[in-house]
């Protein structure tokens, strides 16, 4: 009995030793109880980039511009005023009528003016007759004085009478001229070819001198008063071109030119007034329309430009991510002009036409990453 127990303990000890040694007996051979796993790296999955997130580099002409806005107004406009006082006999035009230079716009009653002219003319003729008589008297006095018949006092009196009448004649001639002018001014005419923008009087009204009658505007040339920040006014020059869009023209772009620049900034605004001239031969534009546009202050030809967000920086400097052979490569670049109005930056060196670069703002993308460019347009179709 003791012998069997001893054998049992030996067997158990051997079994424990085998387990502790990390082996088992299987079909006549010893194998490890745990098989170590072999480390297998998963294949890298390429990053998919939409075709909208990359761009092929190309050269182009780029204009540096300044955005402006303002209201349009006719370059030439005149308020026609009454040059005489009196009753308006007729107003011959309405708002919106097209008029030609010299065309009658309004007429005053001229009965009183004609009477005044006739009276002045008659007085002038009478004074002219008196002047001629005084000239004859003076001539006779001089002859008599030479013969010793007339006194010096008589001669001096005759000379004074003639001088007095000559002065009266000159004054009456001026009065007659004024009366004639008043008769002419009784007809208000258009100062230039244009359109009636405002009518302020009606027939039958009695108005004093300088009363505003009508406003005439020339729509063939419009002017836009725009505001340019003082930080950029040094870039603006007379003669520079601008592209202007006015409300009411269905988004149509019109050519404009910088005509004038105010010499001082508007108080409290940090902006300077700039006047843009816009040709309007068809008369489609109207005063008061709101306008927006861009003044071209500089043009860069045959340049490469990328969105500002496409340009990255590290300790080595500026770079972009260029797609090449299925991977993103770090491509160092030298930057040039900044086109703030477009949100782009000139690439002076480092890229050539045809290079494909990441232009979308994707900060997590890094160089040496496998990429696949997906054409979203093709997928949608």
TrEMBL record:
Residues covered by the CzcB-like barrel-sandwich hybrid domain: 77-218
Annotated CusB-like beta-barrel domain residues: 224-295
Coiled coil: 119-182
UniProtKB keywords: Coiled coil
Any GO molecular function: efflux transmembrane transporter activity
A GO cellular component annotation in the UniProt record: efflux pump complex
Superkingdom assignment: Bacteria
A Pfam family: Beta-barrel_RND_2
SUPFAM superfamilies for this protein: HlyD-like secretion proteins (SSF111369)
Gene3D superfamilies, per database record: 2.40.30.170, 2.40.420.20, 2.40.50.100, Helix hairpin bin (1.10.287.470)
NCBIfam families tied to this protein: RND_mfp
PANTHER family: HLYD FAMILY OF SECRETION PROTEINS, MULTIDRUG RESISTANCE PROTEIN MDTA
Similarity annotation: Belongs to the membrane fusion protein (MFP) (TC 8.A.1) family.
Name recorded for this polypeptide: RND family efflux transporter MFP subunit
